[in-house]
Design goal:
The chain is an all-alpha fold. It has one domain. The chain is elongated and about 65 Å long.
């Protein structure tokens, strides 16, 4: 049974399947370039990137809620997350900030903290490349370099996967900011990106599940 975040991603990606079906309906399936339909391809690239971003946010939040719910003590929290919390509490302007985590207050504090992280990150995470995603999972649930899980057979190494993601997200930025000035986008690129994100989500979700299970002894799904 998949995570709630993965169910949401799969539902969102049905939009891409519909765009591809519309492309085939209007342009046919014979070989050769289709003119006047590139807008569908560009729209698909933008949407896939947005859905990937949402998935990362959702699975991080789902994992954090799971950790908080099933951890009997703050001592069970991963060290990386505790380091982040300690630094933030030390840097807090209010001298009584530390008391917010007293007793069971740490649970509420951590959940509220995720919302604050999301707000602070909005300006940066609208380009969900490898670096931003690694930061998200490190700060949210204490996973180091989640991108290291992005590898699978048939020559998809972590290095290649991160490079491929960054290129697709860069293409999304070009489309969003340059419009017609962006380089051309093909249906084959859309299909490749769709399949790639599905595999990336599978690897990311698996790594997150292993992480929370190591902390709570309970799987995320």
């Amino acid at each position: 049974m998949p995570s709630k975040a993965r169910k949401s991603l799969d539902a969102n990606l049905e939009d891409i399947t519909r765009l591809l079906a519309l492309h085939a309906l209007v342009g046919g399936t014979a070989k050769g370039r289709r003119y006047g339909l590139e807008v569908l391809n560009k729209s698909a690239i933008v949407l896939i990137t947005a859905y990937w971003e949402a998935y990362c946010e959702d699975i991080a939040a789902e994992a954090l809620e799971h950790i908080v719910k099933h951890s009997k003590s703050s001592a069970n929290l991963p060290n990386e997350l505790k380091r982040q919390l300690a630094k933030e509490l030390k840097d807090a302007l209010h001298e009584l900030e530390v008391w917010k985590i007293a007793d069971t207050g740490w649970k509420k504090y951590i959940i509220e903290r995720l919302d604050k992280l999301r707000e602070a990150r909005n300006w940066d995470f609208n380009t969900p490349k490898t670096e931003q995603i690694d930061k998200l999972f490190l700060h949210a649930i204490g996973v180091k370099n989640i991108s290291s899980s992005w590898k699978w057979p048939k020559k998809m190494t972590t290095r290649r996967a991160t490079h491929k993601l960054n290129n697709f997200v860069g293409l999304r930025g070009s489309i969003a900011h340059r419009g017609k000035g962006a380089k051309g986008v093909t249906k084959a690129q859309v299909e490749d990106y769709l399949n790639f994100i599905q595999r990336l989500a599978e690897k990311t979700g698996g790594a997150v599940n292993s992480h929370v299970r190591s902390i709570t002894k309970k799987s995320l799904w």
